[in-house]
Amino acid sequence: MEFVELTKEEYQNYIEEGEESAFFQMVENKKNREWDNKEVRLLGVKDNDKKVIAACLFDRRKALLGKYFYYSNRGPVLDYHDHELVRFYLQELTKYLKRNDCMYVKLDPNWVYKKYDKDVREKEDDSAQDALIQIMEDEGYVHQGFSVGYSKLSQARWMSVLDLSEFDDADTLVKSFDSQRKRNIKKAQKYGVKVRFLEADEISLFMDLYLDTSERQGFFTHPNPEEYFTNFKKAYGDKVLIPLAYIELDEYVNNLSEKLDDLESKRDELMQKDSKNDKTLNKIAEHDKQIDKLQSDRLDASEIREKEGNILNLASGIYFETPYELVYNSGASSSKYPQFVAPYMMHYEMMKYCLAHGIDRYNFYGVSGDFSEDGEDYGVFRFKRGFNAEIEELVGDFLKVISPLQYNVYKVKRKLQSMSGKEIR
């Protein structure tokens, strides 16, 4: 085996084979990182036949005294069951880092430590990957712990994932959802919620919903979120999907009017009967109830149309399509019109997209790992669980110091800067 710097083409060909690669490890992220003024290194391993068998995208950032911080977001990408290969990669990586001015390196591999069912019961047939942690520690890496919760300094460690491989079509998929998911998907369909994909120059439509959601829920946002998401779309191209769930209110009001006319006609026919038994009277009462509801819905929709216009944007999301999975990275929804339950339709349509394109994993992405009712995102967990999504716990972050002297100076500088309130670099 040989540890090498890979060309862009070599790297891409390996990732596209469908190894368990996160979207941050796709070659498109190279351009995205470089736009963020970071240097990128594509470091891999070739076997004796010159075939790539491991790869990793690192970004390199200036640290101190001519040294650099190397970081791989969800790498390396390789068969982590091949412990010999894992160990070889780590050993050769250390040699490379020493030659290339590394102060310290951080890895948060896309390696599943444990798997749980939707009720967070550990799966007995998927044993914990403690051997991987031991290998990392043997090679000088310090495990940063089995974290719970969200952090600005780390990627989410707990994933909510739906396995689609056992479903042939959307009908059988929906049958696996809980009653609330089924009910709200039907409700969104009744309202006429539609989904289309946004282009890069339409990202402001996503941003309007995203900023509303981030303010409402108080989650972390990039300092310049519009640029952040726009760069993803530009760098990844059609591998970033931005669905928008919306309603055409003209069409919705017209549909309500047609249903109302039909019901009123049926009610009038019943009213014209000379003899009205209990069954007829009950039907008339039921029609009256439905008519009142339709009239109320039409009035509400007409008032919304007068205020918002014909198109009402309700929910959107940022998705990454990889050879391995479809990842729901960021989501947003309207706080003013939750009655249309648009996020349910968006997820349903994106799951149908997976079925149509042969994608077996629908990754709802991060949850906090605190699954108690007091957890900070318990509602989010319950929402995803209702689609029958299960839980994957990733192995977590690892840090290795390559240049101890410079790293100790760096830590002192960080501490002083933190105490003075200055930006830490």
Instruction: Report the biggest beta sheet as strand number plus sense, adding barrel if it closes.
Output: 9 strands, mixed
The whole-angstrom Rg is 26 Å
Count the strands?
17
Order of helices and strands: EHHEEEEHEEHEEHHEHHEEHHEEHEHEEH
What percentage of residues falls in helices of 4 or more residues? 40-55%
Describe this protein with a few key phrases:
3 domains, nine-stranded mixed sheet, 13 helices, eight-stranded mixed sheet, 425 residues, alpha+beta, Aminopeptidase
Tell me briefly what this model is.
With 425 residues, the protein is of the alpha+beta class. 43% of the residues lie in helices and 24% in strands.
Describe the fold and architecture.
- The chain has 425 residues and is α+β, with helices and mostly antiparallel strands.
- It folds into 3 domains: 2-113 and 125-147 and 395-420, Aminopeptidase, CATH 3.40.630; 162-241 and 317-393, Gcn5-related N-acetyltransferase (GNAT) (Aminopeptidase), CATH 3.40.630; 250-308.
- It is built from 13 helices and 17 strands.
- Strands 7, 9, 10, 11, 12, 13, 14, 15 and 16 form a 9-stranded mixed sheet that branches. Strands 1, 2, 3, 4, 5, 6, 8 and 17 form an 8-stranded mixed sheet that branches.
- α3 packs parallel to α4 (130-138) and α6 packs across α11.
- The longest helix is centred in the C-terminal third of the chain and has 31 residues, at 278-308.
- The radius of gyration is 26 Å and the shape is elongated.
